[in-house]
Specification:
Blueprint (H helix, E strand, L loop, with lengths): L3 H6 L2 H5 L30 E7 L2 H9 L4 E9 L8 H4 L7 E8 L6 H12 L7 E2 L2 E2 L5 E5 L2 H17 L9 E4 L3 E3 L7 H4 L4 H17 L18
Parallel strand pairs: 6-7
Antiparallel strand pairs: 1-3, 1-6, 2-3, 2-8, 4-5
Helix pairs in contact: 3-5, 3-8, 5-8
C-alpha cells in the first residue's frame, strides 16, 4: 500500500515539497549516552515496554536488532480503539502516537538499556512532534509506562541525561501511562526489513541500525527478530 511516508521519501523533491528546508535529508544522529544510574529489577521471564519516537518503521527496526528483544510490534498508543488505524492516526487528531511494543527478556537486556537505545539511536528526543520529515503529534517522542517502576526509571534517566547536557536541547519526551496498545496493520510490520531499498528506509532508518551497531555493539544483533516469524504479520 502506498502511504504518505513512501510518497514523502521517494525523492528529494518530495521531501522539499513538504516545506521543511534542509529537514529530513538524513537520519537523526546517534548520541553516545551514559548508562542509566537506576534500572528496573528483573522479576519476570519476559517484560514489555512501549516507545514512540516518530515513524514506527525505524523504531521497530532498531529494537528488532537489539539483543534480548523477543518481539517488537508497530502500533498505536495514547488514543482509543476506534481510532487505532493508520489513516485515522495520520490526521494527528486521535491522541495516538505511532509506537512500538517491545517484548524482552530482562535477563538479557534491561528496561534501562532499552531506554538507552531509545534515546541514543532510535530517535531524537529533543524535537517536539517531529522526527525527520514527519511532523504532528502522532510522531511525538513518548514513553508509555506500564507501571510506577518503569515511570520512575524513565523519569530519572531523563533527568540524568538533561543534567549531563548530552543533547543540545532539553528532552521533550512525554511520559504517559499505557492504557492500551493496538498493533498496526500487517503491512506496517517488519517494514524496514522487507523494504530496505525504499528511499525512506534507506535514508532514515537503516542508518539507525548502523548507529546501534557502532554505538552499542554489545546490544546489537545482526539478525532481526521479525513479527512475521511469530505469526503476526
Amino acid at each position: 500500500m502506498t502511504t504518505k511516508k513512501t510518497l514523502l521519501a521517494a525523492t528529494a523533491l518530495a521531501l522539499a515539497a513538504w516545506g521543511v528546508p534542509g529537514a529530513g535529508m538524513a537520519a537523526e544522529k546517534a548520541v553516545k549516552l551514559p548508562p542509566q544510574a537506576q534500572d528496573v529489577a528483573a522479576t519476570a521471564p519476559t517484560e514489555t515496554a512501549v516507545f514512540a519516537g516518530g515513524c514506527f518503521w525505524g523504531v521497530q527496526a532498531v529494537f528488532q536488532h537489539t539483543r534480548g528483544v523477543l518481539n517488537a510490534v508497530s502500533g498505536y498508543a495514547g488514543g482509543d480503539k476506534g481510532s487505532a488505524s493508520y489513516g485515522t492516526v495520520s490526521t494527528g487528531r486521535t491522541g495516538h502516537a505511532e509506537s512500538v511494543q517491545v517484548t524482552f527478556d530482562p535477563k538479557q537486556v534491561s528496561y534501562g538499556q532499552l531506554l538507552q537505545v531509545y534515546f541514543s539511536v532510535a530517535h531524537d528526543p529533543t524535537t517536539l512532534d517531529r522526527q525527520g520529515p514527519d511532523s504532528g503529534p502522532q510522531y511525538r517522542s513518548a514513553i508509555f509506562y506500564k507501571d510506577a517502576e518503569q515511570k520512575r526509571v524513565a523519569e530519572r534517566y531523563i533527568a540524568q541525561l538533561d543534567a549531563a547536557r548530552v543533547f543540545p536541547s532539553r528532552i521533550v519526551t512525554q511520559l504517559a501511562p499505557l492504557t492500551a496498545f493496538y498493533p498496526a496493520e500487517a503491512y506496517h510490520q517488519d517494514y524496514a526489513t522487507l523494504h530496505p531499498q525504499s528511499p525512506y528506509i534507506a535514508t532514515f532508518d537503516l542508518p539507525k541500525i548502523a548507529n546501534l551497531k557502532a554505538t552499542m555493539p554489545d546490544l546489537y544483533r545482526d539478525k532481526p527478530v521479525l513479527v512475521a516469524a511469530q505469526g503476526r504479520g
